[in-house]
Design goal:
Layout (H helix, E strand, L loop, with lengths): L1 H18 L6 E11 L5 E11 L7 E12 L2 E2 L2 E17 L4 E18 L2 E19 L4 E11 L2 E11 L1
Antiparallel strand pairs: 1-2, 1-9, 2-3, 3-5, 4-5, 5-6, 6-7, 7-8, 8-9
Length: 166
């Protein structure tokens, strides 16, 4: 049920972001392999809204991102789930007319819950986050995107999806 609520919130955020979009803004929708230290991999959904900031640099943008696990990482007797909300500064380096490398750094609020046989708990707080990736241009408005993001010291994800530019 919690996952359904989080996915609904992410969808509403993406739709409302699209209504405020300006030329050059973009949204990313990705699926990621969620890697939590000491647990088997899970699956996360990632939604991002980005806006270029040419006043800073022609290749700089800012992003707001929401991530939630949809298949929880686990180990025998213990499951862990998390969601994050983050803000990033992103620098993109075009290699040619199709491929672009990107690096990003920012802060995320993460909320992790774990449950197991006879115990449960949670951890939340703000953490620095970094990532790198690449995009490949398919047409004027659509790119493929792949990224690796370290959310906190023991959570990271490798993700891929699409980027739509307005």
């Amino acid at each position: 049920m919690k996952t359904l609520k989080l996915l609904t919130a992410a969808g509403l955020l993406a739709m409302s972001s699209a209504s405020y979009a300006e030329s050059g803004d973009y949204i990313n929708l990705q699926l990621g392999i969620s890697d939590v230290d000491g647990f088997s991999n899970g699956l996360a959904v990632i939604g991002t809204f980005g806006r270029p900031v040419p006043r800073v640099h022609e290749n700089f943008s800012i992003e707001g991102e929401f991530t939630a696990t949809i298949l929880d990482p686990d180990r025998p007797g213990i499951d862990v789930s998390y969601f994050t909300m983050g803000a990033y500064g992103v620098y993109s380096y075009p290699l040619d007319q199709y491929a672009t490398l990107r690096g990003r750094a920012g802060m995320v609020y993460s909320d992790s819950d774990y449950s197991g046989t006879g115990s449960s708990g949670s951890h939340d707080g703000f953490e620095p986050s970094v990532g790198f990736g690449a995009t490949y241009n398919l047409n004027k408005q659509m790119d493929l995107i792949a990224e690796y993001t370290i959310i906190e010291s023991d959570i990271s994800h490798l993700s891929a999806g699409i980027q739509y530019r307005f």
